[in-house]
Amino acid sequence: MQTKLSPYAIITALLTLWLSLAPVTGAAADMALQQVLAGDQRTPEYTARDIYRHPQETLEFMGLRPDLTVIEILPGEGWYTEVLAPYLRDGGKLIAAGYGPDHPMERMRDYHAQYMEKLDASPDVYDKVERAVLWPAPFIGSVADGSVDMVLDFRNIHNFIRWDNITEDVFRAYYRVLKPGGILGVEEHRAKPGAIASEVANTGYVPVAYVIELAQKVGFRLEGQSEINANPKDTKDYPGGVWTLLPRLRTGDEDPEKYRVIGESDRMTLKFVK
Fold first, then answer.
1. What is the largest CA-CA distance in the chain?
2. What CATH number is given to the structural domain containing 62?
3. Which of 36, 112, 203, 225 has its CA 20 to 30 A from that of 210?
């Protein structure tokens, strides 16, 4: 009797084979990522948002390979974790750095608890994910200096500004944990040119110049910028901020359809090197 393998099991087998045969770079790494993105470990509602978030192109731009040690900063509900965990499971390492169970904001504690439950519920996918906390200082304190190949920060900087004003300290922690030549990948809601970070952070948007200046101040070099996640339909002038758009659609009494057709926000996609 033949045993039918799940798509996820096939993906794991393929990744193991590729890693055993040769360094996973170029076309092989791209194909491995394609297989993971098509896997049944992903939540269908998350997969439907690939048209807005472009995970294949974004992660390839960042330089992700399945043999790297990667920190995902504040993974939230695990949208990118569903991709990163299986991709890095056999040849690399994923470290998920959440706010932790002791953050003063109940919402952040709830996010942390739900995320932990997600990891625990699927050990076949997430058993090798290492768990760290971003908060409190010293930020990502459990991660050793110079031990990480890549730090990925997806849409968190606006919260660092508006909640805790810890952006520079957090970026210094990113720099500390990365190896020389290590990569910091940033994706963030992009404010209008000339905007002031402290004035627009409550809308969810952040100026590109602010992020670049911040990263350079702590020692990073800007390696590249991409328009992968640009959205010219986003006018960035909504009463409810970026959360008026998908996936939140916090529109109050207004018809959400006009915001649905905009899609998700206009986003910067930046790559820095230590």
1. 66
2. 3.40.50.150
3. 112
Q: What is the three-class DSSP state of 271?
A: strand
CA neighbor of 234 nearest in space, from 191, 186, 175: 191
Number of structural domains in the chain:
1
Helices in the chain by DSSP H: which ranges? 7-21, 26-37, 44-47, 50-53, 55-62, 81-88, 106-121, 123-126, 157-159, 167-177, 197-200, 208-218, 257-260
Question: What pLDDT digit, counting tens, does each position of 160-201 carry?
Answer: 999 878 999 999 999 999 999 999 999 999 999 999 999 999
Label each residue of 221-256 as H, E or C. Answer: EEEEEECCCCCCCCCCCCCCHHHHCCCCCCCCCCCC
Strands, sheet with 267-273, edge to edge from the N-terminal-most edge strand: 130-133, 93-98, 69-73, 148-154, 178-189, 267-273, 221-226
Residue 94 structural domain: 51-273
- Local structure of residue 192 (DSSP, 8 states): P
Whether residue 24 is contained in a domain is answered as no
Which residues, other chains included, contact 267 with Cβ-Cβ below 8 Å and sequence gap of 6+? 155, 187, 188, 189, 190, 229, 230, 231
**Distance in angstroms (rounded) separating the CA atoms of residues 142 and 254:** 45
pLDDT of amino acid 1? 45
* Alpha-carbon span 96 to 140, nearest angstrom: 10
Instruction: State pTM to two decimals.
Output: 0.91
Q: Does 13 fall in a domain?
A: no
